[in-house]
């Protein structure tokens, strides 16, 4: 739901309440105060607070009365690093009619809250702006989660780059490569800049596997499940020069920011296959010698 729609619905309800009885206005304000999202209304010059619900006190840690007395108090509470940027955005709302920004609020007790604020002009029947209104939401939890995910991703990428196996992550049903570690570059002949964002199938999968691989990938991104998830396969992969070589492939699933991703760990087993072939041929020779021995 857009902030403009929310604001119009909110203002409509407030104005209906104001036109009605004191009891209906009180009921409306009680409903507004029950939400954790701030609803705010200012004068058309953006210099006076006309209304703000009680969520302001929870997020800013200051009373609504203090905002009515001194409109600049909400800006004074913004983190010094963010204040100039917010001031500029707020000044521009009168010119552009747009206000959509994230910033930090420092409460009197020193606690910092991340806030996502949005606003829009409200026009009368003649198209004239007669007030600005909008919302502000506490996104501290979302920010903390995002930071945790970012740190986890950085740790994962660091570990992946140091791995002795090729590690490739795939994002989206088209099979686009999201991560390509150093070993993958050595194994397949493409540096990360050449591989990331490309279709995995066109890059390193022999054509005879294309259809089944694409079908399986499509199912995976729809459900997060697949017949190859969690098992190890032996098949062939394609180098940059077009040559094929045997690999051991393990695929696992992970969900990042509500999106499925597939992680493939690929090991070049060329030398192992050579050794297995040599051992098998040696055993066959031994059996032939034994079978043909004159005793």
What order do the helices and strands come in, and which of them pair?
Elements: H1 3-19, H2 22-33, E1 38-42, E2 49-52, H3 55-60, H4 64-69, H5 73-76, H6 80-96, E3 99-106, E4 112-123, E5 129-138, H7 140-162, E6 166-171, E7 176-180, H8 182-188, H9 192-195, H10 200-204, H11 210-223, E8 232-238, E9 244-256, E10 259-268, H12 270-292
Helix pairs in contact: 1-2
Characterise this structure.
It is a single chain. This protein is of the alpha+beta class and 295 residues long. Helix content is 47%, strand content 27%. It has helices spanning 3-19, 22-33, 55-60, 64-69, 73-76, 80-96, 140-162, 182-188, 192-195, 200-204, 210-223, 270-292; strands at 38-42, 49-52, 99-106, 112-123, 129-138, 166-171, 176-180, 232-238, 244-256, 259-268. The strands form two sheets. Strands 2-1-5-4-3 form a five-stranded antiparallel beta sheet, sandwiched between helices. A five-stranded antiparallel beta sheet has the order 7-6-10-9-8. A hairpin with a 5-residue loop joins strand 3 (99-106) and strand 4 (112-123). The longest helix has 23 residues, at 140-162. The chain is elongated. The protein starts with a helix and ends with a helix. The model has no long low-confidence stretch (mean pLDDT 84).
Shape: elongated
Rounded mean pLDDT score: 84
Distance between the termini: 90 Å
Strand order of the largest sheet: 2-1-5-4-3
Measured by DSSP, the beta-strand proportion falls in 25-35%
Q: Gyration radius, to the nearest Å?
A: 31 Å
Give the number of DSSP strands: 10
H and E string: HHEEHHHHEEEHEEHHHHEEEH
